Amino acid sequence: MRSNWVFPSVLTPVLVLILLVPPVFGASPSYDPVTGRDYDTFGGFFDAYGQYVDPNGGVMDRYGEYVPNSYSDSCDTYYDSQG
Q1: What is the pLDDT of residues 26-53, one digit of tens each?
Q2: For every residue of 19-61, which 3-state class applies, written as one string?
Q3: How far is the C-alpha of 59 from the C-alpha of 49, rounded, in Å?
Q4: What is the DSSP pairing of strand 59-60 with strand 45-46?
Q5: What pTM was estimated for this model as a whole?
Q6: What one-character DSSP code corresponds to residue 71?
Q7: CB half-sphere exposure, 64, CA atoms < 13 A
Q8: CB 34 within 8 A of CB 42
């Protein structure tokens, strides 16, 4: 005797949502939705240009040079080694 059990049509989309939604939303516990940044464990982040801004306000720019105290949190700007 063989049983042909098929998922109901409502259960299949629900299972797909359960499998897909958790990895997309909340995948990174350090993501800040207000700024749109993903902070590392030390409090720094990478900007859209690939430059690393550390929690002390220094920037490791795309030229490979570290510029201390160059990040301004109030206006979200910084200076790199080229000015």
Answers
A1: 556 677 878 888 888 888 888 877 888 8
A2: HHHHHHCCCCCCEECCCCEECCCCCCEECCCCCEECCCCCEEC
A3: 12
A4: unpaired
A5: 0.57
A6: E
A7: 0
A8: no
